[in-house]
Design a protein that fits this description.
about 475 residues, 11-stranded mixed sheet, two-stranded antiparallel sheet, 13 strands, globular
């Protein structure tokens, strides 16, 4: 019996238990894939662990657990990390060479994976300062969708998504502030799990917008995303924003019939024609009497209003705060023009406006709470409105990027957890099947019920495109 080179976590566990493969063989296979894929897309990684170091790590695990039936939860599982998260001895660049430094400590979220036996393969490319949804704003190149190189990979966790979708790793740890996990998930046919805010430590993560940043997971299956989350979710008392996930233990499970809501027609009208067609197919499935789902009328306006706050208010100045020391020393001359433009836009707000916007956001958050209490169990949205080609984004980087956040930017601001799932497909102009995706959102603490719902819905929703024949 031989290993079929399946990198999903249950498959690896079974292969290790049966002796059909070893961590060393997995590392050799993964590094071979990394080298081969780099010829197709050289912009996925910022740093790849050397073969000698990766194999040394694999052999260390083999020796430590030789003959032991019980192994760590992520034993021999290869993973990648967004290059905005510190790993001792590695460069943390946030895709800005003049900002880069060598990390002296490893972020707890990465260390917990290593402590559970995972094998780090490397750090992945991202949009500069984790700012953007297209995947374009990096001096290390523009990763492309695994389905078609003419199309953007999504961002800001661009390299993370491609590393998983190209089957170079089992999962990737990234961050999601305004959709930075969910967007690349839909463009690469992945699961994008954005957990409850502050339930995963952000210590050792370069902040984009500190109060809206959420360490998140990209994986090929809900099961793998869950396995990673169970390791990284931990109450870090040294993280000033952390809250224990146990505060949500009292929450009930789903009712027999789950009430779901969707965005209003005026916003769904922004979907591209191919996206709109697949969305209608998804809705038909959700509305089926056998689905256990019931569409509910509700007020979407607080979600829409909160969405506008992320970049259309003084909230954007959080990005100035995060990089204040850098900007004082270097200014914006060495930044990607789109990122520089966002920083310049951030400078005109007053303290009065900042407080006004904070109070407005509190109002929207409370109204969202009421909508879930009275009308909704889950909000279901298209993850984004369309899939741009790389050349289309190059023509209008700010405008194209702005459109993509229509259904993503509000989630963290109003304290929702979310899971993006690939469903359905559309055919592009060259005849290639491209993935579509939806996102399920629920109030804080509903991570596990949301994952269970995703697993329940996926078999009955339109099948998505796959990379099997690419």
């Amino acid at each position: 019996m031989t290993w079929d080179e399946d990198l999903t976590i249950p498959a690896l566990r079974e292969s290790y238990a049966s002796g059909t493969t070893t961590p060393s063989k997995v590392v050799e296979t993964v590094l071979r894939r990394v080298g081969k894929y780099a010829r197709k897309d050289p912009a996925v990684w910022i740093d790849v662990v050397s073969a000698s170091d990766a194999l040394a790590r694999a052999r260390e695990l083999e020796q430590a657990y030789d003959g032991k039936e019980e192994k760590p939860r992520l034993f021999g599982v290869p993973f990648s990390v967004k290059n905005s998260i510190d790993i001792r001895g590695f460069r943390t660049t946030v895709a800005c060479p003049s900002f880069a430094y060598t990390a002296q400590e490893t972020a707890p979220v990465v260390q917990r994976c290593l402590d559970e036996g995972a094998i780090l393969i490397g750090t992945t490319n991202l949009e500069q300062f984790a700012t953007g949804l297209t995947g374009h704003r990096s001096p290390y190149g523009t990763p492309r969708s695994v389905f078609d190189r003419e199309y953007t990979s999504g961002g800001s966790s661009s390299g993370s998504a491609v590393s998983v979708a190209a089957k170079l790793v089992s999962f990737s740890i990234g961050s999601d502030t305004a959709g930075s996990i969910r967007l690349p998930a839909v463009y690469n046919g992945l699961i994008g799990l954005k957990p409850t805010m502050y339930s995963v430590s952000t210590r050792g993560v370069v902040p984009a917008s500190k109060t809206a940043d959420c360490v998140s997971v990209l994986a090929t299956t809900v099961s793998d995303a869950r396995a990673a989350l169970e390791v990284i979710r931990w109450y870090d008392e040294e993280d000033t924003l952390a809250r224990p996930y146990s505060v949500f233990d009292h929450l009930p499970t789903w009712p027999d019939t789950i009430r779901f809501g969707i965005p209003p027609a005026k916003l769904l009208a922004k979907l591209s024609e191919p996206y709109a067609r697949v969305w209608q197919q998804v809705l038909a499935n959700l509305r089926d009497p056998e689905s256990g789902m019931s569409q509910s009328d509700f007020d979407y306006s607080p979600f829409e209003d909160a969405n506008a706050i992320m970049y259309g208010s003084s909230f954007v100045t959080q990005r100035l705060v995060s990089f204040d020391d850098y900007l004082k020393q270097h200014g914006t001359s060495q930044l990607h023009p789109a990122v520089a433009a966002i920083f310049e836009k951030s400078k005109g707000f007053t303290a009065v406006q900042a407080y006004q916007d904070q109070f407005r956001l509190l109002e929207y958050k409370r109204r969202v709470e009421h909508e879930f209490r009275d009308h909704l169990d889950v909000l279901i949205v298209p993850t984004t409105v369309r899939h741009w080609k790389v050349e289309e984004v190059d023509v209008d980087p700010l405008g194209r990027n702005f459109q993509l956040g229509e259904f993503t930017q509000f989630a963290n601001l109003v304290d929702l957890c979310a899971i993006a799932i690939p469903v359905g497909s559309w055919i592009n102009e060259t005849g290639r099947a491209m993935p579509f995706g939806i996102t399920l959102l629920a109030p804080a603490g509903r991570d596990e019920p949301l994952m269970q719902l995703a697993e329940r819905l996926l078999p009955n929703l339109p099948k998505t495109a796959t990379t099997d024949n690419l």
